[in-house]
Amino acid sequence: MRVVCTQLVKLFPGVRALDGVDLDLRPGTVHALLGENGAGKSTLIKVLTGVHKADGGTVLVGEGDDEPDRPVVFSGPSDAQTAGIGVVHQERNLVPAFSVAENIALQALPSRAGLVDRAGVREIARRCLAMLDLDLDLDRPVAELSVAHMQLVEIAKALATDSQVLLLDEPTASLTAEEADRLYDVVRRLREQGHVVVLVTHKLEEVFAIADVVTVLRDGRSVAGSVPLSSLTRSDVVDLMVGRAHTERELQAREVDRSTTPALELRGVSTSVGHRDVDLAVHRGEIVGLYGLVGAGRSELVRALLGLDSVTGGSVLVDGRSVTIRSVGDALRRHRIGYVTENRKEEGVFLTQTVTRNVAVTVWDRLARLGLVAERRERDLLATYQERLGIRLSGPTQLAGQLSGGNQQKISLAKWLAADCSVLVIDEPTVGIDVRTKAAFHELIVQLSEQGLAILLISSDLPEMVALADRVAVMHERRLTGEVENSHDYAAMSGRIIRLVHGEQAADAPPAA
Amino acid sequence: MKETREVDVQAETEPRKETEVDASDTRRRVRRRGVEEPPPGASPTPRLPWWANPRVGLVVVIAALVALFSSARPAFLDVDLTLVPLQRDISVFVVVGLAQLAVLSLGHMNLAVGRMAALSAFAAGLAYDRFDAPLVVGLVVALVVGAAIGAVAGAIITATGVNSFVVTLALDFGLLGVVALLYDRFAGGVAFSTRPPGMDELRSDTFFDYCIGPVCGPPVPLLLPFALVALVLVGLFFGRSRNGREVLMTGASLRAARLSGIPVGRRVVTAHALSGLLAGLAGFMLAMTNGAFSASIGDSFLLPSFLAPVLGGTLLAGGAVSALGTALGATLTSVIQKGLNLLQFEADALQIFIGVVLLVALSLDRVRQVLAERRGVRA
């Protein structure tokens, strides 16, 4: 099935969310859909899947690879489904308590005499999983599956309705590298079977790994409409997305004074969640990267450090003094350690509260006079960080849930800066954040370290690591496998780091501090 | 592991140019999309229209009902017959509502609010009966017992992680038996017969009975200031104090609160202790109004305790409370009750009416939330 969209327009009051988008989805291709946050990707998906109705332009559908001639208008998601367009959203849309088979067949349950035809359900599930070359236990509740498997079940579910066009919205955002590879295999398989796979993503590596054709959206327009990827370089694509010549900021290797007492030091630390003999030191003005695969135990180490789990052996030193940290509040108020969590929507910000309260939450005791918090001082605080971090707000009473991801992340960071932390652990700061905001965030992190903060940066994004860190420590299965001085030479660094990730000692790694 | 994912829809429609938001169109948009929209980036702070404020709505409805009832039954405006008893009812139910509000702030519930009041009232009654305690000492005893039993509920919830609904429901059953046994054992029946000095005045006097020279006070019962003080203190606690705000943040997101350095366990205990304390105050006040410390105190507290805060715009989900709204909510329910009484409605018909009012009010609340979401401000 081929789908051609011409000059799609979607208006929201005061906003042209789509303003002339052309898209040509040919069978047997993997089509990457790129654009910064706000460029219109999600709106386009919603128009294609019948959630929104386009205000202008046409969608034509045709059989096979022929020039499509049949105009379609979807009045709801089920229309699009019937037409053969399936979607796998970022949010999980599975019923956790139902089995794999039931979830896959859910949208078109076969029934006999008013009752669900169990054999039919399993038949459908088996067929769809076979298309993906997957072997999953059909009767297992989805809740017991790994995130990666849930993702694959969702794809199978989309196939159950005979989807010829499959839209995947950031499918690898929560997958490890290996799981992502398996997903790519599935995507390639679908392509061979003549499906169109539309891939919405922020990861350019991913695009170049599996996509054939790319459409880039900017400000609701398609600035590159269905262009073969072979004709573009990585930097071409970034230019298209950002709309101006974009230079990736190269940081020079910096001199960090490591003769001083480290602001935070771990000596032979073991934790209740399985870390052993972790030695790590972060000095003032230094950015130490903690790299590893998803699941290597980096965030868990920090959580244990902050008292959310327990440190069972070794010692934790803050400014050279051995300390015991019982809670995040303890870390904050007694040791001035802040933790910008990776999970900003659930842990980083209070979505239903105002931005003012989100920033001031750590310092209410300081802002209080006679036990009452002075609202004016609270707003002054917000204004300070709004300016310093460049947070875009409509006003101090705006709810954090209504900010974009990048701005939420800045609010999450501002809360710790307001508390005057001297050590900051920043966990996956730029996941799901677009290229431009990401660059701004990187600059911010560097600035903070230049102002004397000791920063422990956790990231699974290798380019980010190489761009920011002064030193990179690598964790593998809850142990540090080595530490590399950052030369800021991506090719050399990535090689050394990847070797450490897989448990090999880098031949030229300096001894751990 | 990586649960953080960008929700593009929020940013997708971020206006690129200075725009005016047309109200009717936006409403449609919100319905259609079912997600919050970002407000225009550079516009001034958005505000809800005045009529979307639930407090304003309540004032209007109360005024309308008072007008209706007093035109139908002029006796509705009779000071001694209606207005003073009405104020006493309102005073008690404001405090009852605040007791529930204290845990609604967390997104919790206190189903034992009535029985906590009963136990507190028993303790006060015992102090008067056995120890000839002065009036104020009995009050303090009631508050302490209430706070203690509330703290116990909070501690159980924190320690076990069991839902507050279950814990307080179990507590309610337990206390039901305990209170009956205690009265049986110590009062030899279902009520204490002792009345401490000052109780009769507190029960029946108004400030009109106290004059300085020719100037007498307004016809306001002596119990009303108790409710007023509770109202102001609870309002300040949640609005301006560090602890109260931390309770609200814990209600808004437990995980985010823990990771922001808030001692969430202690805040849960704090909120439940406050709930118990206010329940104790309500029990004391009702005993004063009834003129006796009896086992039946608190029996009628549970439903009104939810009615008042919810009518006033307190969210069941936690994270947002309104003390003033609770006062207005309690006023509304008391006015309806009094008015329908005067119109000689049957008690059962009265309940139906209150149910309908609650449904209507909550539907309006939903409208308000949609408005708030689309404007990007606090409801």
User: Which CATH C-level class of chain B is it?
Assistant: Mainly Alpha
Instruction: Please report the total strand number of chain B as a whole number.
Output: 2
Kindly report how far apart the N and C termini of chain A lie: 59 Å
- How many separate helices of chain B? 15
Q: Which structural traits does this protein have?
A:
heterodimer, A: 513 residues, alpha/beta, Rossmann fold, six-stranded mixed beta sheet, 18 helices, 34% helix, 25% strand, globular, disordered C terminus, B: 379 residues, mainly alpha, ABC transporter involved in vitamin B12 uptake, BtuC, two-stranded antiparallel ribbon, 2 strands, 67% helix, disordered N terminus
Structure description:
The complex is a heterodimer of chains A (513) and B (379). Chain A has 513 residues and is of the alpha/beta class. Chain A folds into three domains: 2-242, P-loop containing nucleotide triphosphate hydrolases (Rossmann fold, 3-Layer(aba) Sandwich), CATH 3.40.50.300; 248-336 and 421-513, Rossmann fold (3-Layer(aba) Sandwich); 351-417, no CATH class. Chain A is 34% helix and 25% strand. Chain A is built from 18 helices and 24 strands. In chain A, strands 6-9-10-3-11-12 form a six-stranded mixed sheet, sandwiched between helices. In chain A, strands 18-21-22-15-23-24 form a six-stranded mixed sheet, sandwiched between helices. In chain A, strands 2-1-4-5 form a four-stranded antiparallel sheet, with helices on one face. In chain A, helix 6 (177-192) links the parallel strand 9 and strand 10 (196-200). In chain A, helix 14 (375-389) packs across helix 15. The N and C termini of chain A lie far apart (59 Å). In chain A, 52% of the residues are buried. By secondary structure, chain B is mainly α. In chain B, helix 5 (113-131) packs parallel to helix 7 (164-187) and helix 9 (224-240) packs across helix 10. The chains are: A alpha/beta (513), B mainly alpha (379).
